Amino acid sequence: MNEDKTGLVTILDPVGKPRTAKLVLTTDTLSVLREEIVSTDSNGNDQMLSQIREVCLCRDETGGFGLSLKGGADCGLPVFISKMPPNLPASNSGKLLIGDAILKINDVVCEKMEHDAVIETLKSAGQTVYLTVRYFKPAALFLKRESQSSSSSPGSSQSPSLPDLERQWVVCVTIPLLFAYLSRFIPGTDKLRTNAFEVVGVNSASTGVVLCEDSRSLADWIRAITNNISALLSHMIKMSNRLLIPEDKVVHMTWTQERVSPMRHFQAWKPKFLCLKGAEICLFDVPPMQTRDWVRCDTVFKVYECMFKVLKDVELLDDRQHCCTIHCGTGEKFYLSAESRSDLLQLEKAWYKTNHTSITSMKSKTFGCTWRGMLSGLTLDLESGFSLYDNTTKSYMWTYKFSQLKGSSDDNRSKLRLHFHSAENPNNVETREIQCSGLHTLLFSIHAFLSAKLASVDPLFLGSH
């Protein structure tokens, strides 16, 4: 169920400094808002123009920068540049404007400093100073008028007030939730943040690190955001499947994290978008948003030629929990992590559902092999089980039901021994040895057919995974 939610949180800026922010969650977006000073001037000049800028100034021979300042926290305002006499560093730079608010002097934040404190900070800033500024058009209009007024009437005692300014919540970033993902981990690592998370959009836009005041608040935000993301993905799958034949329908989409070799990559984990579609598993670096994206996917395997395994705690390679492996018959192996236990179990259930659907549709598959030195074909059939066809005699040499399989053993290269209970005497075990160049593909396919057969006999099997 979709949820709208609003609340105050703390967000770490790019240099790690905490700032109060407001999160606004809607059905399809998550927005981060920060308090900014805006004008409520009746003339309608209520928009702050330009972006934050950094300007470098060097003191002149008299030790000054050529700036006059007004405002400050003691006035309830930012500190503005009110005058810049000609032929001095500030005016000569060509990069400062009357009406610029000084946000930082070097690395010192000035937004909440009183007027005199800003002056002292500027005086002690050194020979070279870096000013971080932002232009306020309403303040600029007033300061220019005041400057003109004071120059024409030097003795005037009237001092018009600065334009009315107030703090308002302004949107800093809005993230579309379709194809977005939420993570509590520090990117590229197995280190879990404390009471914090980050949401990353498909366009790589990020909320930054969101700090919650306690674990309950964290759980509420994670539940609400992930539910909305899941609802959007489910709707996307439903709409896409209307255009697809049953054998090609999308079963599941989800973000995972793939563990990669730290010897070849700077980070040990990287995001992977996993899709189960038709009989295939597809892994993307970027989610497929157009039809051609499916065609261009480089990492595609048949589900029934792979082995999916949920890992136990003792099998984990680092501190990331909720992990699984996907072994492919062609030799590739993927070690993946889900964000939560629920996500991992949903993926496992979707895997077995995809496998059952594909095997039911395919019904049988034959593998080239040799038996007793003769070219043969081993057929796996969902209804009849195992059967070996001799290419020389054009006849079936043996047939067994899936229920007769007792076990198997192999040399991890090409030789496979299948052990069956005899049809005449179940206590007797008959061993059939074959050689197959695609040994692991055959083994994984046998496992896929057995799983599909079990699901056909016991429909609760799919629901239990």
UniProtKB/TrEMBL annotation:
Subcellular compartments: Cytoplasm, Cytoskeleton
Record bears the keyword Cytoplasm: yes
Record key words, sorted: Cytoplasm, Cytoskeleton
Keyword hit for Cytoplasm: yes
GO molecular function, one term: structural molecule activity
PANTHER family per record: FI16515P1 (PTHR10554:SF1), SYNTROPHIN (PTHR10554)
Family indicated by similarity: Belongs to the syntrophin family.
Protein name (record): Gamma-1-syntrophin
Organism from which the protein derives: Magallana gigas (Pacific oyster)
